[in-house]
Amino acid sequence: MPSRRTVLGTVACALVAGCSRFGDTASRTDTPAPATVVLSPVDAAAVPETATVGVFSETATDLRAATRDASTAVTDYEWAHVLHEFDCFAFEGGTYAVVERATGSGGYINEYSVTEVDDPGNESTVRVADLPDSDRRAVVDAIAAGEHTYDSDVGGFDPTSSVYAYNGSYYAFSLEVHGDKPVEVTYAVEATDGDRCTTLEPLSLDDEQAESLDTTLRPDEASTVTGGVARTLAASDAAFVIHAGACYELSTPVDGTVT
Question: Who contacts 198 (Cβ-Cβ below 8 Å, separation ≥6)?
C-alpha cells in the first residue's frame, strides 16, 4: 500500500464513527511532513475497502481484547458503531467485522385477573373438567389465587376462552396486562474470511497530543490540527481516522508544510 508520504489517498468515511483523510497532493518523497492537517467529518459507510484508517491507542487496545475473545460485547464502545459500517476490517494480521447479536426471546407475558361471574352472557364457556390435566390444575390454581400469568417462553396454560365453568360456577379470565419481551441488539467483533477489508493502522499520541486532539476535533465541522499531532497523522498511511465515535478524512493545506 502506498505510503502517505508518497500519495495521500482521497477517500470517504462515515460520520457515524469518525474518519479523516489526506487529500491528493504532489509527491512528498523529499518534502517535510505537514505541520497542519485538516480533519473533516465523513460518513464511515463511504470509506473504500482499500482505505487505511487510523485508530488511536485506546481503540487499538480495546480491539485487541475484542479480537482475542469473540464473546466480548463492544456495544458501549463508540468505535464499534463506526466499524459496524465497514463490511470488514484488517487489524494486526487478522480480518474481522463488527456484527450484530440479538439477545432476548421476543416473546410476551399475559397477566389475567380471575373473578367469579353470575352469568357468562354471550361469552364462550369452557368446562374445566374437559381440559387436559395440566391446564385443569392451572385453572383451578388461578381461580383460587384470583389471577393467572402466562409466559410464552415458559409455556403452560394460556386462556383460549374468557369464561370457565367449574363446580357449578363461572369464572372470567380478563387480560389486564400484555407485555412484549424486548430483543436487545448488541455488537461483537468476529473473525471473517474477507479478502477486501479496510485496513486499520494503530496510531500513537502522547498525552499532550491526545488532549490537544480531543479539544480540537468537532464531529460536525472540519478541524485543523498542527504540530506533533499533524506530523504523526502525516507520517502514517491513514487517509482517515476514527476518534470518539466519529470518522474524519485527512487533508493538508497547500501551505501546510514544515519549514
Answer: 47, 48, 49, 50, 51, 52, 53, 86, 87, 88, 89, 90
In our burial notation (b when 16+ CB lie closer than 10 A, e otherwise), range 35-57 reads: bbbbbbbbbbbbbebebbbbbbe
Is residue 138 within 8 A of residue 159, CB to CB? The reply is no
Instruction: Flag whether pLDDT at 13 surpasses 50.
Output: no
Find the mean pLDDT for residues 113-129.
88
pLDDT above 60 (res 241):
yes
Helices (H) and strands (E) in the chain — how many of each? 5, 14
pLDDT tens digits for range 24-76: 444 344 455 557 899 999 999 989 999 999 999 999 999 999 999 888 889 99
Pairing of strands 89-91, 169-180: unpaired
Specify the amino acid at residue 227: G
Distance CA 25, CA 143 (A): 81
For 147, list phi and psi in degrees, rounded to 5. -160, 160
Q: How far is it, in rounded angstroms, from Cα 40 to Cα 213?
A: 13
